[in-house]
Amino acid sequence: GARAGGARNFHSASARGCKRLRLWRRCTLLFVLFWAACWLVGSTFLFLLHRGVFSERCTDEQSRRILARLCLDYSKGVLTGDLCEDLCVAQKLVYKQCLYYDRGKKVIQADWKGQPVILKSKKEIFSSYQHLRFLDEMETQDVPEAELLLMAALEVKNVLGLELSNNTMGPLWTRRRGLHWKAQVASMWSLLQQEEYIYFSLLQDFSKHVLRIIGSCGHFYAVEYLTAGHAWHKTIFPLEDAVGPSFTSSKSKAKAITDIALSFLDMVNHFDNDFSHRLHLCDIKPENFAIRNDLTVVAIDVDMAFFEPKMRDILEQNCTGDDDCNFFDCFSKCDLRIKKCGAQRANNNLQVICDKIFRHWFPPNLKGPTISFPLQLQLQKAVHECAKHGPEDLTEHQKTSLNSLSELHHLLQASQRELQKADG
Ligand SMILES: Nc1ncnc2c1ncn2[C@@H]1O[C@H](COP(=O)(O)OP(=O)(O)OP(=O)(O)O)[C@@H](O)[C@H]1O
Ligand SMILES: *[C@@H]1O[C@H](CO)[C@@H](O)[C@H](O)[C@H]1NC(C)=O
Ligand SMILES: *[C@@H]1O[C@H](CO)[C@@H](O)[C@H](O)[C@H]1NC(C)=O
Questions:
Q1: DSSP state string for 120-156
Q2: C-beta 413 within 6 A of ligand 2
Q3: What is the rounded distance in angstroms from the CA atom of residue 176 to the CA atom of residue 154?
Q4: In terms of residue numbers, what domain contains 103?
Q5: Claim to verify: residue 152 and residue 214 sit in the same structural domain
């Protein structure tokens, strides 16, 4: 009896417990939903705030005021540039909207002769840039060209960590003698203080994977408008925006992604080999790349791009373990005997692109009707292998990376052929 009673007691207790549990569960569910909603609203708000959408500095009014001020300075002969006439007089360069504002950095979308362009400056106001005092003292045009070139070269050396020969400085220093030479020098000096401008203008002629600079007016420079990537987007790049609504079928999407992936590989190869020093990308994420209409991949954010000599300086730190040798997507190993990080980067651009970009496209269980199954499987495996940590020995590692690159290239071309064949 005692046992049965005990059991019954236990039973009713557990029934009550169950009811409470169910109630609790429902409450928890409500609570979780409520919490998720709060989180969503809050983070969207913060995101928009961060993007500067709510910031008073990114309103149309404020942006127009900034451009009006630029044009006033232009009319006074304080600054100049090849786009000033179109912006301030001919009205061929027209403000559209503010895209981004953060601590002075301004990104504006505009329309130039019917095509969209981006206007950028690290600081809003011309006078916030460092001023060349000697310009006030000089009256003649005869500031020695050589001296100006030297100043530009020093600035470039600071930013890139490279010494360039005089003739490759050309894109940065195209001064025309004549009227408004002070405005010309002052404008160029404000542009030279923007690292991104230095990268883009020096690499222009050598690389299709670098943002095109269209022109400048004062401290603002214009670059081509592209379709930027987003981590949350299913295909990373919104293909409809880049190449039009014909890219909606899953096959044409697969084709486009294959082309973009091949362009990524071309970029990796190019940044590794075609400059006098290797170019390391230390912040690889969808947002920092964009595509042109022809599906070329372009690096649009070079804040974390470093040529080999500067990369070595950055990596070579004191350390007590490997963790001290990480610099965003670039890392080396800690040599415990001398407590110093290796100067040579232990991973490479390809590995990180495989890990952070290609994995999105070739996930481990993609089963589409687009590419044949064996090929899909091979691609997944190749991407996985490519993203893996390489061998400790750095020359060995370089070899495996080269193999990875050529295997991926081969597989992507095979996919391209398959998709092409299915067309006919
Ligand atoms: N060429 C471009 N075409 C289209 N959109 C662009 C282009 N350049 C920038 N954008 C948009 O403007 C935003 C901000 O530009 P940018 O990448 O220069 O700033 P950021 O580097 O993200 O800023 P921060 O240096 O503060 O991190 C980008 O996230 C992108 O959405
Ligand atoms: C660059 O030009 C300056 C001035 O003309 C000259 O002094 C310097 O030697 C040149 N440097 C190189 C690397 O050619
Ligand atoms: C690194 O270590 C050396 C020797 O132990 C020391 O002299 C130097 O100041 C350290 N550098 C930094 C940046 O901590």
A1: EESSSSGGGSPP-THHHH--SS---HHHHHHHHHHHH
A2: no
A3: 21
A4: 55-225
A5: yes
> Are residue 171 and residue 197 in the same domain, yes or no?
yes
392-405 residue pLDDT tens: 898 999 999 999 99
> Confidence class of residue 81 from pLDDT cuts 50, 70 and 90?
very high
If one counts the domains in the chain, the total is: 3
- Which DSSP letter does residue 354 get? I
Residue 71 lies in a domain: yes
Greatest CA span in the chain, whole angstroms? 115
Ligand nearest the Cα of residue 196 is 1
Residue 403 Cβ contacting ligand 2 at under 6 Å: no
Whether 101 has a pLDDT exceeding 90, the answer reads yes
Mean per-residue pLDDT of the chain = 87
Pocket of ligand 1, beta carbon within 6 A: 99-100, 102, 105, 107, 118, 211, 223, 225-226, 228, 287, 290, 300-301, 303
For residue 184, the one-letter residue type is Q
Q: Cβ(366) to ligand 2 under 6 A?
A: no
